[in-house]
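Objective 1b: paired records.
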Amino acid sequence: MNPVKVGICGLGTVGSGTFNVLLRNRESIQARVGADIVVAQVGARRENPACDTGSVPVTPDIFEVARNPDIDIIVELIGGTTVARELVLEAIANGKHVVTANKALIAEYGNEIFAAAQEKGVSVAFEAAVAGGIPIIKALREGLAANQVQWLAGIINGTGNFILTEMREKGRDFADVLAEAQALGYAEADPTFDVEGIDAAHKLVILASIAFGIPLQFEKVYTEGITRISTDDVNYAEELGYRIKHLGIARCDDKGIELRVHPTLIPEKRLIANVNGVMNAILVMADAVGPTLYYGPGAGSEPTASSVVADVVDVARTLTAEPKHRVPYLAFHQDTLSDHPVMPIEDIYSAYYLRMSALDKPGVLSKIAQILSDAGISIEALIQKQPAEDADHVPVILLTSITQEKLLMQAVAEIEALDSIADEVVRIRVESLAG
């Protein structure tokens, strides 16, 4: 078999890692593919000292790489969704197979990209787009192909997990830990994508599409960040036997599909509750195998490069295969994708953690309990703290039974309207994630 020629576009953290892994492990990769994998050209605006490209041609024009007739596979690692989309579509139009680590690109424009790729008979691989070095896409698409996936829940943003871990273990507040995360390079100068859940939502929609056989629908993901989580909430959750994690949750049943990213209380005994720091983990529940957990680094130069190169290997192995004999982009063939509806957040069912500041006088708790009872919501656990000196309000923490979101929100609005309640009621969903 002739050498497989690769063009890498983007020589940043992941691009340099990909180049280095392909070079360092060239012999073992060749043995796996049955052909040599050669980086024939690199598209990059500037050099990266972490990567010695040697005699490999480097051009500042990434579209030159996409049009290079000698290249078989384009590896898109420039990020963003504007130029990257143009680059990928240009590469496909020129008959190139595409490997990308760009979750936003796939989540927002994947349907368009896959349609173009199908028309040209080329592959698009994106293992590195979700959870860095964890081979979760391959697991869902191939390893669990015999199963009906019922639900999945994942810690799929390392920055948010680092912040919540530091808040729990060291009692630090959100702003303090975020500043450190930025200093360490875990969070960008503008951390919105990480702390508001947008990054996790991009990844979740990809996982859900593969798990449930639905088109990519990023605009339908409910997204809630962690900026309002306080150290008090972390400590109260611990007191109740829970940990707070920023989860992406996808669930499919007869009523529809849930796609949601938000802070979540999960029992501390769950393995996923003990995933700390910048690590990622995805728990998948499927009918035949039951629960499976996938854990590892969700970012970083060579962990992400591991997934990128694995995709290059997969694509290289199937270069001569008929398109219909390759693994479908979203696990299911395009003409079989389901139109099962995505449910609005107000229709989902969950238990809830509620924290409120209540006037310290008789009868207040009974009014709160009555409002919840009238909505058909039971109180499963209660913590009432002693008031601080000279304070007339006390923290009251409740865990509710499972109820529909819209019923819970109506009850919360009634509680907030009480003269005895100060400020907004903090509400965090609770998931058992039982296997």
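Objective 1b, second protein:
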Amino acid sequence: MRTRADIQCWLTDMDGVLVHGNQALPGAPELIRHWLEAGTEFLVLTNNSMFTPRDLAARLRISGLDVPEERIWTSALATADFVRAQQPGGTAYVIGEAGLVTALHSAGFVLTDTEPDFVVLGETHTYSFEQITRAIRLIAAGSRFISTNPDSTGPSVGGILPATGAVAAMITKATGRSPYVVGKPNPMMFRSALNRLHAHSEVTGMIGDRMDTDVVAGMEAGLHTILVLSGISTRDDIARFPFRPDEVLDGVSDLLG
């Protein structure tokens, strides 16, 4: 049986595992420092497609975590990798922010609203009816529908906000076309991260705080899965699912020593 001692590379979720808001969680700075000093291959994963790795590295630095930008893997980067593999040098109509736009440009895509190969839906705080209408018409005309992540809501100071999954549902209702969703819990997100690291699933571990995204996708990708109880899922939640993580820890501080 594979154990933690067999793990040579790590994938880890960000919110609820390494940080909560703008505060580093106990043990997170020390764990990142240990991986960097030991030369351990790792990536910090997030379903958030709004920000570039540079933006997120700056946010983590403010929180007390020194994570190089090349160690951050977003659903935007995974989505850009996916569409590039599907159609190199393709075109896309994008609803999203700098993280997604930059990733698609870097993948060699041209962004256009004229007969694009793909309509790519990502996260933004400024969804507009005009953009959504344009996306619906393009998809109805034959453009392939891609979404960076399935999250239906996001947090804000005033309460929850509609997120990518909710907007995707509206587009699906209007077109009858469901998107291919690249981000967690699609194991494609983890496989693209493994490719980035040139790593094999047999020697890679996944650390997450959600049974319904991190653990299930990690399991389906063949990774050693660790659920930490510092975020969304609780110990009582585990019994509700027909699958189990390989390990359950209070937080990443338990990985030290």
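Residues 76-181 form a domain with the Rossmann fold fold (CATH 3.40.50.1000). The mean pLDDT is 95.
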